[in-house]
Amino acid sequence: MPKYDLGGQWQGWTSVGVADSFYLPDFEMQPEYLLTVPGHWQLEPELATHKGSVFYRTTFDWQPTLTWPVIRLSIGGAFYRTTAWLNGDLLGTHEGYFTPMSWEIQPDHLLPEGNVLAIRVDCPPANVSWRDMVIGIYGEWDCKPPQINPGGIWGPVTLQENFRGYLQNLQVDSRLTGWHSAQIKLQTDLIWRSVASQVKVTVKITPRNFVGKEVSQDFSLTVQPGSNKLDLKLNLPDPKLWWCWDQGYPHLYNISLIVIDEQGSEVDSCATYI
Questions:
Q1: Residues 65, 130: one domain?
Q2: What pLDDT does 61 receive?
Q3: Domain boundary residue among 162, 192, 208?
Q4: Helix or strand or coil: residue 98?
Q5: What is the pLDDT of residue 87?
Q6: pLDDT per residue over 81-107, tens digit each?
Q7: In which band, very low, low, confident or very high, does the pLDDT at 20 lie, cut at 50, 70 and 90?
Q8: Is residue 16 located within the same domain as residue 67?
Q9: pTM for the complete prediction?
Q10: Could you say which of 31, 55, 232, 234 would form a disulfide bridge with 217 (CB–CB 3.0 to 4.6 Å)?
Q11: Does residue 130 have a pLDDT over 80?
Q12: CB 14 within 8 A of CB 50
């Protein structure tokens, strides 16, 4: 599915005076900085000791490649509180540094040229101490230099088109069911933006770092408009286990999932490894 990388050099400000206007399409103030996205802002020489807020802004063009596309704007991760606007309209707010965020965009909300994406990142947010934030060793750790602040948009920023729907929130669980067998359980949400339909979901498991056999299984499912919870199970014969270095070899498997509609068109796919 078409995916557009919106990373690169973004305009940036740290002056709180721009907070109420930097996201508006007609905002014309010269940037204080040019910031690399993705990246932590303290990697920029001018912001090496900065704490608080950074206001990011970029522009992009967009031409649809699919008929009736389902469009999502995704941020792979930002540290710590994130607020995003597109063409002056609020998309939403997200809190936390290790989870991605995404928003579904209506096609008529995008322009052929000059779309404005603005993101405010607060780290730490106003009136919030490090102890109020779930950030592990990045908080008040006695081995961390006090001036270190991991704030910034550290994950990729993308705009993705899908046909009729998309997958999200993939979770994988693996359990041994005997001496020579394991069960792989996949749970994911299929967001369906079309009429009730039959889809085929193909799951493939292949060795990631060793030579072995591929396991593949097809599932035929009926999906309804809206969110559909997929709960898929398949058996992995003679699984090669992951061992720490002093006990054996750390075997890993790639897992891919692809959704095909009743006309044979790809809807979406996702992948991970275990």
A1: yes
A2: 97
A3: 162
A4: coil
A5: 98
A6: 999 999 999 999 999 888 899 999 999
A7: very high
A8: yes
A9: 0.89
A10: 234
A11: no
A12: yes
Domain that holds residue 171: 165-273
- Asked if residue 138 has pLDDT above 80, the reply is no
The encoded tokens of residue 123 equal: 């780290």
CATH of the domain at 51: 2.60.120.260
Q: Quick one: tokens of 26? A: 């007609």
C-beta of residue 241 within 8 angstroms of C-beta of residue 247: no
DSSP of 7-74: -EEEEEE--GGGTTTTTSTT--PPPSEEEEESEEGGGSGGGTT--EEEEEEEEE-----SSSEEEEEE
Q: Are residues 176 and 258 in the same domain?
A: yes
For 68, counting Cβ atoms within 10 Å of its Cβ (0-12 exposed, 13-18 middle, 19+ buried), the class is exposed
Detail the DSSP E strand segments found in the chain.
3-5, 8-13, 33-37, 39-40, 52-60, 69-75, 81-86, 89-95, 101-105, 115-123, 152-153, 157-163, 165-178, 181-192, 197-207, 215-223, 226-237, 253-261, 266-273
Query: Are 149 and 45 contained in the same domain?
Result: yes
Domain CATH for 244: 2.60.40.10
- The number of distinct structural domains making up the chain is 2
Could you give the strand order of the β-sheet that contains 69-75, starting from the edge strand earlier in sequence?
Answer: 3-5, 157-163, 69-75, 101-105
The phi and psi torsions of 110 (rounded to 5 degrees) equal: -105, 145
**Residue pair 55/122 in contact by the 8 Å Cβ criterion:** no
Q: Are residues 155 and 177 in the same domain?
A: no
Q: Which of 128, 162, 196 is the C-terminal boundary of a domain?
A: 162
For 225, the token pair is 């408009």
